[in-house]
Amino acid sequence: MVLTPEQKHLRQRMGEMTPEEFRAAAVAAELAEWREVNRFCGKCGTAMAPHVNPDEHAFTCPSCGYMSYPKIAPAVIALITKGRRILLQRNSHYHVPNWTLVAGFVDVGETFEDAVRREAREEATIELTNLRYVTSQVWPFPSAIMVGFRAEWSGGELTPDGEEVIESGWFDPGHLPLLPFKGSIARALIDTWLAEQGLSSPIP
Ligand SMILES: [Zn+2]
Predict the structure, then answer these.
(1) In 127-177, where do the E strands start and end?
(2) Of 12, 72, 123, 197, which is most buried with the most CB atoms under 10 A?
(3) What are the extents of the domains in the chain?
(4) pLDDT digit string (tens) for 64-81?
(5) Centroid of ligand 1 to alpha carbon of 61 (angstroms)
(6) Which CATH topology does 73-196 take?
(7) Paired residues of 27 in beta bridges
(8) Neighbouring C-beta atoms of residue 29, cutoff 10 Å
(9) 58 touches 69 (CB < 8 A)
């Protein structure tokens, strides 16, 4: 995913924003992206026109009548535990040294739960049990929503694929590597797990 300088800036600063500030910035970023990629009708190629109702986020094609609304791409992310340890991995497309959780976009025809199980198989070659929804986060990079889960390991040996995932491991709460940045849903899932064990979140 190639992000604009504005999108990269927003991602770097999201940890410093209040939830209200982040929400406002996310709405602006997602609408800007949507306008950018919907200047022409995806069906017939005619220049799109604003919807008759200016309060509605929609473009209308004056030629064929096709209407375009902002599209949100759901992605799943999961904190996976094995006893007292959690799964963390380093991804090749990350330009930072931080470790993170299993995550990925929901594919056509999948439920969120299907997507978590598939990503765990693809990225870590493990099977899961006790999969449950925890929280979600608007993720305007450029127009996703992250759906956060907890799950427990039920089988399989950790095997990073060497392409998308360079390194992975089970980490106990006292020996964590560099974590995802504050403000991200990945970090929130990890911090909640640490708090359950009476531990505070490290800095950074
Ligand atoms: Zn059209």
Answers:
(1) 127-139, 144-155, 165-171
(2) 123
(3) 5-68, 73-196
(4) 999 999 999 999 999 999
(5) 5
(6) Nucleoside Triphosphate Pyrophosphohydrolase (3.90.79)
(7) none
(8) 22
(9) yes
